[in-house]
Amino acid sequence: MDVETQQAALDALHDDPGDLPVLRARFEHNGSPRYMLYTIKKFGFDHDHGFHLDVRLVSDELEGGVETVEAKLQEGDADLIDIDYISTARERAEGAPIVAFHPYGRTVGGLVVGEDSDIEGLEDLRDKRLGVVRRLDKNWILTRAACREFHGFDPDEEATPIEIGSKVGLTEALHDGEVDGVFQFWPIVPEITETGPYREAFPVSELVQRLSGTDNKLPISTFLTSEDYFEDNPQAIRGFKRAYGEAVDQLRSDDELWETIGDELMYENDPAVIRAVRDGWRDMVVDDWDEETVNGMDQLFDHLLDVAGAEAIGVDHLPDGLFRLEVPE
């Protein structure tokens, strides 16, 4: 399913905002939040909760060293995006006026290799060529931290990370045999493993839990907006949080909806792929957060900092004001 076709499916659901505050959502065309955004529009959860969600799908490539969605938020062309909280901390520490106001989920990927690969786990990564979107990608940072913590080596030094620059490029590099494996994002993993001679060597979500030392499911990705939008549009922010909750409930219970999503939004409209993405999404998503959740996120960050170092992470602290659990009145 190409980007234009997916956007057309969303455009068919875009109604008149009327006097409602508009929330401009800009999300990657191959990212999993689009399933939730589509559900909000399909069932009208945005208008039910007092705001108008305007969804546009964008590239997953980098602009000036940051992902396209980040660039759009920082440049004032978007009000809502999602990225991992390590990247959010990095950008906020460098002066970007962005805040995380709601969790999304444990949005990490997995290492995909050929079926006959000798890579089974972290200990097998030495001397391998491994595709990553960029070396500051969360999947690579978590893998480096886990290798250092549990196996006493750094794959950034004892393997060869190859920066590809996009998720589409990762899959192409794997198909072309340019790398021994790729750290692909979780919604795309089934598209590869269910349709070709490939398998997932390990999911990075396992590393998240091992490194955090907790059984609580920690959100890695959060929804972001600008400080100005957060302060000036509390109705839209509160409305989105409620609409998100309804969409999550719908996606957890409605298998037929996932079939529709497969028809409208998925690149591989294969029943096995749809089921794998559906089950992966339900396992990944996080409903809400509280101080305990944020404390767990702090602990995971501190662990990554201790193990991988500030240079690998790209930031040495979580800036004040990064997480906004309470919406202003």
UniProtKB/TrEMBL annotation:
It comes from the Archaea. Pfam families: NMT1. Residues 53-251 form the SsuA/THI5-like domain. This is NMT1/THI5 like protein.
